[in-house]
Amino acid sequence: MRIIVCESAEEVALRAAIESIEYLGEALSTQSSGKSENPEASCVLGLATGSTPLGLYREWIERYRAEEISFRNVTSFNLDEYCGIPPSDPQSYHSVMHENLFRHIDIDPAKAHIPVTDCDDLSQSGERYEAMIEEAGGIDLQILGIGSDGHIGFNEPGASFSSPTRVKTLTKRTREDNARFFPSIDHVPRTALTMGLGTIMSARAILLLATGKGKAKAIRDTVEGPITAMVPASILQFHPYATVILDAAAASELALIDYYVDAERNRQS
Ligand code: PGA
Questions:
Q1: Is the Cβ atom of 70 under 6 angstroms away from ligand 1?
Q2: Residue 147 Cβ contacting ligand 1 at under 6 Å
Q3: Could you give the percent of the chain with pLDDT greater than 90?
Q4: Residue nearest (by alpha carbon) to ligand 1 atom 8
Q5: Does the beta carbon of 146 lie inside 6 Å of ligand 1?
Q6: 230-242: buried (b, 16+ CB within 10 Å) or exposed (e) per residue?
Q7: DSSP bridge partners of 141
Q8: pLDDT score at 268
Q9: Residue 32 pLDDT greater than 80, yes or no
Q10: Which in 113, 233, 244, 256 has the greatest CB count within 10 A?
Q11: How many C-beta neighbours within 10 Å does residue 126 have?
């Protein structure tokens, strides 16, 4: 794993924007970007909700407005969606993504996918989502946040490492963490349709972002702990291209922090 330690959450957003734009290369290029525009270039982005990626989305929007990047050749797949609330609910991930990213950029709405949960057959919906990801050619870059319990997507502790998109029950801790977005904890949905750990691990590259002291233990367990279903994100130790971008607080419990900082410095020199 590549570990990038930043001073602040703002710097995490900036670094994530730089890393993602560099990785996706000409798939995001515009005439004014200075890069050669290749009409054939396209990419598939995996997106996440929660508070953490919002800074990255603001950076992308800013660069889109400055005509440095374009999302017209991007297909996206979000990690998850709550069950039991309609897409029109302001707390649905359909609404959250529209409000915080999609409505500000030039992505084709027909190519911005989020798991469908307002349907009769959720397991079929999950299977269809997997098929759509495959048809699109697989995910090039998956953006991830992390739960304080080590979840990625809504793959809670105990999730199986090879799981596909399917319904998961949220832990009490996750519902408590997410209660801040709802009138009360009783309004937080109990289940969600989420990409599985198998789906996430199939992405060609991963960018996991974490900020704040509340994530420090989950990050330590993910990066330096044993690979265990008790910490779903720890499976990322098996991923060949996983980059973790942290602020100082989220990195504060890492035993090898000096080494990561040194390694990153050497990489850039
Ligand atoms: P957060 O959520 O970014 O709002 O902390 C992350 C997650 O639960 O995956």
A1: no
A2: yes
A3: 94
A4: 147
A5: yes
A6: ebbbbbbeebeeb
A7: 45, 205
A8: 80
A9: no
A10: 233
A11: 23
Ligand 1 centre distance from Cα of residue 150 (Å): 10
Quote the pLDDT of residue 30: 81
pTM for this predicted structure = 0.96
pLDDT (tens digit, 9 = 90+) per residue, 99-137? 999 999 999 999 999 999 999 999 999 999 999 999 999
C-alpha of residue 146 to centroid of ligand 1, in Å: 5
What's the CA gap between 142 and 204, in Å, rounded?
Answer: 8
Q: Burial level of 250, CB count in 10 A (0-12/13-18/19+)? A: buried
Residues 6+ apart with CB under 8 A from 39: none
DSSP, res 194: E
Which residue shows structure tokens 């989502």? 129
Tokens in use for 214? 């509340």
Residue 263, number of CB atoms within 10 A of its CB? 14
Q: Is 100 in the pocket of ligand 1 (CB under 6 A)?
A: no
Active site residues: 80, 149, 151, 156
What separation in Å is there between the alpha carbon of 55 and the centre of ligand 1?
A: 13
In terms of Cβ atoms closer than 10 Å to its own Cβ (0-12, 13-18, 19+), residue 190 is exposed
Ligand 1 centroid to residue 39 C-alpha, Å: 35
Residue whose CB lies within 8 A of the most ligand 1 atoms, among 143, 146, 175, for a mutation test = 146
Using DSSP's 3-state secondary structure scheme, residue 204 falls into coil
Task: Give the dihedral of Cα atoms 77, 82, 83, 88; nearest 10 deg.
Answer: -90
Task: State the average pLDDT for the chain.
Answer: 96
Q: Per-residue pLDDT averaged across 245-266, rounded?
A: 98
